[in-house]
Amino acid sequence: MKKNYSVLIVDDEKIQRDSLSGFLKKGGYQTFTAANADQALQIAGGQTIDLVFTDFKMGDKTGYDLLLELKQLNPEISVVIMTAFGTIESAVKAMKAGAYDYLTKPIDLDEVEIILQRAQELRHLVRENRSLRNRLREKHKLSGIITNSPLMAETLSLAARSAESKTSVLIQGESGTGKELIARAIHQASPRSEQPMVTINCAAISENLLESELFGHEKGSFTGAVRQKPGRVEEADGGTLFLDEVGDIPLPIQVKLLRFLQFGEFQRVGGSESLRVDIRLISATNRNLEEMIRDNTFREDFFYRLNVINIQLPPLRQRKEDIPLLIDHFIRKYATRNEKQVEQISNDALDLLMKYDFPGNVRELENIIERAVVLCRDRIIQKSDLPLTLQPLRSGSAPNAPLEFYSGTFKDKVEAFERDLIETALQENNFNQTKAAKALGLNERNLRYKLQKYGMK
Ligand SMILES: Nc1ncnc2c1ncn2[C@@H]1O[C@H](COP(=O)(O)OP(=O)(O)OP(=O)(O)O)[C@@H](O)[C@H]1O
Ligand SMILES: [Mg+2]
Asked: Which residues surround ligand 2, an ion (CB under 5 A)?
């Protein structure tokens, strides 16, 4: 502890300085000395000083002046005032101004030692307390996000800090990295958490409906507009508007949204009245917007409006330390949901997952664990409960899995095998259902039925 504790001694009498610093050096403290207040400030400005012993009466600046300036420099420095006269008033004054303690000359070295011990314990407690508080704050601030990765720590801290403000946030990351989860967490941690968060999945709505979905429409403004309908932005008034898959917004709608973001005003489709709302905008995409700007499919000015704070979610394969944590989390989630006793994962199953690349990121891991929990026969998930596509033994084109990979009843085994066949076919055909069906020798409707039956996307 002492090694990284540094002490500065300030006294205009050389003998005093030297005897005290000699004592401290022997005790293993890093020591500095200064003959007056200005020298002391220079030293304290140049490196970390934990504690200062300063004479009260010296030169034109007293130890009291030095105390005030040191506290300004760094409020965490402990300052101990040494006074030759034992004048209680000056000691009291110094203590009131934030001195850590005082000593009367001649200095009693036992007292020095006690002060140093206490100051170090205090520093330790203060730091521990602060880091606990920080960790708690971060935990509570962004709830539901499981991670232990230093890569994510930066991202989360940025997200947590952005929550306070009304600034637009753009979240980018591959599919399944948790973009929507972060968006929700930001909203939850924001002063708007009591107000609605309205999500629009821009990829799921056709171009001609998107504008009316966003801004609403007046009665009769287009065929099918049988009554007036307020837009989603109105629903989000006072809260957060989450534009998911923002990269899929067609150019004409980008223009309309840009105008809305610039002036805070919009009109319903077929309406002439200008309406105003107060929203905080979060958007997310897995598309490469910079590339889209180059291809003229995404407006640069719109991008800059969205991208005031940029949050990049790293893919799971770049933060593999999160895999065991997430597995644990998902086992508990799906064991509870399915009322199963599954508690953990076997080492070789974990090993398999640690080696896997997860193109579908956390969502893919979640699906794998959900399936494994359902298939699992006892408390521990085995290799055989994982999809065959993960299993290196079977890297050929068609699944010819050793049968011991399958567990459960005959029906379980057949279903697991069927599922694996389908999964492999889909993966090998870039998730094109028509091609996968062909490869399997199934008709497409049959494949779709099976996908639905097994809850596969
Ligand atoms: N760090 C995490 N901790 C716990 N759950 C997570 C984490 N990251 C992602 N998830 C879970 O993974 C799933 C996918 O996350 P989410 O929907 O937020 O991803 P996304 O980036 O929006 O994906 P997409 O681009 O496909 O829309 C969700 O069920 C989410 O709860
Ligand atoms: Mg999403």
From this structure: 179-180
Give pLDDT tens digits for 208-247. Answer: 899 999 999 998 888 888 888 899 999 999 999 999 999 9
Task: Compute the distance from residue 159 Cα to the ligand 2 centre, in Å.
Answer: 16
The Cα–Cα gap between 437 and 425 comes to 8
Ligand 1 pocket check for 147: Cβ under 6 Å: yes
Nearest CA residue ID for atom 18, ligand 1:
178
Residues of the chain with CATH 3.40.50.300: 150-314
Pocket of ligand 1 contains residue 6 by CB under 6 Å: no
pTM: 0.61
Please name the residue whose Cα sits nearest to atom 9 of ligand 1: 178
3 state SS of 260: helix
Cβ of 162 less than 6 Å from ligand 1: no
Dihedral angle of Cα 229, 230, 233, 236, to the nearest 10 degrees = -120
Given 3.40.50.1240, 3.40.50.300, 3.40.50.1370, 2.60.120.280, which CATH number is that of 150-314? 3.40.50.300
Query: Which amino acid is residue 281, in one-letter code?
Result: L
Which of 405, 404, 403 has its CA nearest to residue 387? 405
CATH 3.40.50.620 correct for 2-129: no
